Amino acid sequence: MQDTSFAIHPGNKQQIEGTNHHDIGNVRSFKKKEGRFVFECDNGTVNVLFYSDSVARVVMNQKQDPVLEGSFAVIKEPGYVDVSVQEKDEEVTLTAQEMSLHVLKAPMRITFKDSDGQIIVGEGKKGMGHSHEGKVICYKEALPYEHYYGFGEKTGFLDKKGEKMTMWNTDVYAPHNPETDALYQSIPFFLTLRGGRAHGLFFDNTGKTHFNMRTEAGTYSFSGDSGQMDYYVMAGPGMKEVLSQYTSLTGTMPLPPKWALGFHQSRYSYETEEEVRELVGNFLEKSIPVDAIYLDIHYMDGYRVFTFDEDRFPNAKQLVADLKEQGIRLVPIVDPGVKEDPEYEAYQEGVHDDRFCKYIEGNVYYGDVWPGNSAFPDFTSDSVQKWWGGKHKFYSDLGIEGIWNDMNEPAVFNETKTMDTKVMHDNNGNPKTHRELHNIYGLKMGEATYEGMKNNLEGKRTFLLTRAGYAGVQRYASVWTGDNRSFWEHLQLALPMCMNLGMSGVPFCGPDVGGFAHDANGQLLARWTQFGTFTPYFRNHSAIGTLRQEPWSFGEDVEANVKKYIDLRYIWMPHLYKLFRDASLTGLPVMRPLVFEYPEDKNTFNLSDQFMIGDNVIVAPITTPDTEHRVVYLPGGEWVNYWTDDIQEGGRHIMVEAPLDTLPIFVKADTVVAHGSPKQSTAVKEDNFQLHAYFGKIAEASYTIYEDDGETFGYENGEAFEKSVNLSYDSDVLTITTEDLNTRFTPDWSEITIVIHGAFDVTEAALNGRNVEMEKLDGGKLVITVSR
Ligand code: GLC
């Protein structure tokens, strides 16, 4: 086209090779302005800001000054960071304590280095750019031996090296498979592991974004169809530090009420009050623990949110109260679509008070969902947040404490599966199109719901489950992975999917146990429940028209097997609760891949079929039919078989027998886990608190017990029980030392039973310097009871 006028087209700027993007070009000027560093370039303006010594943000805008406010994900303000600036002809260097940015001027290329001067994130031939249509892109150098984790809710294996991924919240009922890309959640964050060290990158863009980790050409890229190029680099240096840095930006999960960690039972739908009562009766009669029952869309009057169908549920309040008496919570579904019905209060209010998403011309957007033609609240406006949150008084007044948000991508039954991208969001007076804000619809609905319920519950913790979300969703909700199927393959893919969600700042997640669509079978339900015992979120849910899959649906043997593992969930509850507490403080996931603990061990880099709970327990579920054994990888060190107490030398793959009632579990030697006893629900008092220590060669282990009331925010004011217990043995003497760290809450239990596995030679035990009685059991087990 060089022979036409196109040769002098005003858009003919330097292109990024092989793309239709313009390169950012050369730096024309550099200055420091109000705590940020401003680079005026040929094709845009770039700002650099520091959030801490190890977190920096880069924002590029091709049209105007970069917009720095208004992130939906980041709740942290840039901090005061001591940055030294050095400007030379070719380069500007910005140096903070843990990282430095080296900005080459011609053309602009940014290299991030750690405090040792090693490159963390580099740019080479290609850097930042943008296209005529307003798309933005950034290329980074990729090294052949690095690995990528996170990216939220994605199918496929753990390591995302070689993957191309799109972020666009999408309702995908079609079977999820390795090719399924955009799902319900969009979390444009990932960690790079490189030679045992890690760094993070978060691309804060709420429109459709793309990650191309097909790194053959030595680069990876991330790009957005709209918005600015706005990303944060976290310097690590380990995976744990990266995740803490990421969650210091986007927030950590609030500690859920303990009942949210119990076993939950759902079905699309338990349609009537009698059906719910009968269901609960079955759980009680069979002594199968359960903490929550879900009400899917049939509870409503014509699918109108904030209503009950009074024929099916004549006395919802009494039902909620009766269930609570049994220690069981009722969790109703709430979708965003408000039925277009001039005689329905929520719709009337929404129209009168201008609460719904509209086109720029002023007409309300309607889409077809369960209730038929529906309007969609514009959650980007604070007043709509308050209105929607307040509407949940309908539920809290009935005694309901937890809500299930669904269809909040938002899903619409049309070709595009969602809202018209031309619809506007008010965004508190800074209107943006749905195209630009699509991925935060679920997040903002979650915020409105969580804050509303929290406010209504006056000091009690609420629980929210959501299908859609964006970075930061952990602040409000737990996440289930949507409409999976009763396929073994879907059990398999749930492991890396949940591990990657955990590495994306979302510790509280899990799949529909047993599979949602398609018919389950007994074996699948048994194996899936075994896995669910250790997923942070544990709910059995299935679709209308499929075989029933409550624990007793496949005969007595399966029922006994499923009950054993639901019981096991409650046995492990004290430990899980402590891990949730840790996650709420640090942002580190409860369920995590082995690579998170063993980042130097190449056997863990893409290990997708086993996982860890905290830093010391490996769980290796069976995920194929008719399989009674599997290979388990144990990293270096010693590992104790939870069921047999056999000690295995790690650093190798072992073959493990796993008949249908056995889930392989290994505890790292010289560590402790806390146990309670099986119970009908978390509402039953714990009277059998145990610490199980698994002694190996070191014969030393310690644990910090954490307990609180499990239900209020008292713990935020320090109303908790924390006690450290240290165990060691030497020359046949077991030494126990304990220290009360916090006694402002009094647990239900008054004694701690310490069970030491592998204490063969102990002949004497001392607690805080005094001899104590001990009971020796077969197999090297030792039991000592100490008072709280
Ligand atoms: C969606 C949800 C599913 C729910 C159904 C009916 O498919 O993902 O969990 O049961 O809608 O509300």
From TrEMBL:
Domain (Glycoside hydrolase family 31 TIM barrel) ranges: 254-579
PROSITE patterns: GLYCOSYL_HYDROL_F31_1
Hydrolase as UniProt keyword: yes
Keyword set, alphabetical order: Glycosidase, Hydrolase
Region (Disordered): 1-21
Protein's UniProt keywords contain RNA-binding: no
One GO MF term attached to the UniProt entry: carbohydrate binding
Name of the protein in question: DUF4968 domain-containing protein
Classification of source organism: Bacteria, Bacillati, Bacillota, Bacilli, Bacillales
